[in-house]
Amino acid sequence: DLFNKVFVFPQETNDSYVLIKAMPEQPLQNFTVCLRSYTDLTRSYSLFSYATKAQDNDIVLIKPRPREYQLYVGGKFVSFRVPEDSMESEHICTSWESTTGIVGFWFNGKRWPYKGLQKGYLVSHKAVIVLGQEQNSYGGLFDAKQSFVGEISEVYMWDVGLTTRQVISAMRNWPMEAPIFGWRNLPYKIEGEVYLKP
């Protein structure tokens, strides 16, 4: 249980990350990913990278610039603009459903307008899941210039979409729905220089 703890990524690197040692039991037709991050980076960086053998960008959460988040599904992406950084931690959740292609995005508990992406796509369940780096091939080929520097916490993934009420509950670390993995029970392995701090 990592309640009230954070992963600290102290510097730009191409070999430090957190490997999540859990994955879905079957291919994903729906998913929601939530996490909290805290950084003063202004360059592009990757928060969450879910790579499969067929597609290294099967699910990726990237912040290419300070006021924008991008969600990749199956190698294609949508962007969400967010308010100017106030040097506070940012909690984001994003969901996707295959039947409609609809993407949901919540920033600090507030829902942004829905967008569409990759209708009818199926995300493989045989994946390598990494925090703090972007996989440019299955399980590796990291680029230091895409690496995260700062703090990541409250990481969750579900194989269903969430409502705003459920997002707010997850934001408080009391998820209503049972996740594939979550902060209260996260199977992880640290690679390189990442620290777990209270």
Rounded to the nearest angstrom, the radius of gyration is 15 Å
How far apart the termini lie comes to 12 Å
The overall pLDDT average reads 95
Which word captures the global form?
Answer: globular
The name of the CATH architecture is Sandwich
Distinct helical segment count: 1
Helical percentage: under 10%
By CATH, the topology is Jelly Rolls
Indicate the CATH class: Mainly Beta
* Largest sheet data: 8 strands, antiparallel
Based on the model shown, name its key terms:
8-stranded antiparallel β-sheet, single chain, 7-stranded antiparallel β-sheet, globular, 198 residues, mainly beta, Jelly Rolls
Give a short synopsis of this structure:
The protein is mainly beta. It has one helix and 15 strands; from the N terminus they run E-E-E-E-E-E-E-E-E-E-E-E-E-H-E-E.
Plain-language structure description:
There is one protein chain. This protein has one helix at residues 164-171, and strands at residues 6-9, 17-20, 30-38, 45-52, 59-65, 68-73, 76-81, 90-97, 102-107, 110-111, 115-116, 127-131, 150-158, 188-191, 195-197. Strand 8 and strand 9 (102-107) form a beta hairpin. 37% of the residues are buried. The protein is mostly beta strands and 198 residues long. The strands form two sheets. Strands 1, 3, 8, 9, 10, 11, 13 and 15 form an eight-stranded antiparallel β-sheet that branches. The mean pLDDT is 95. It has a single domain (6-197), classed as Jelly Rolls. One of its GO terms (molecular function) is metal ion binding.
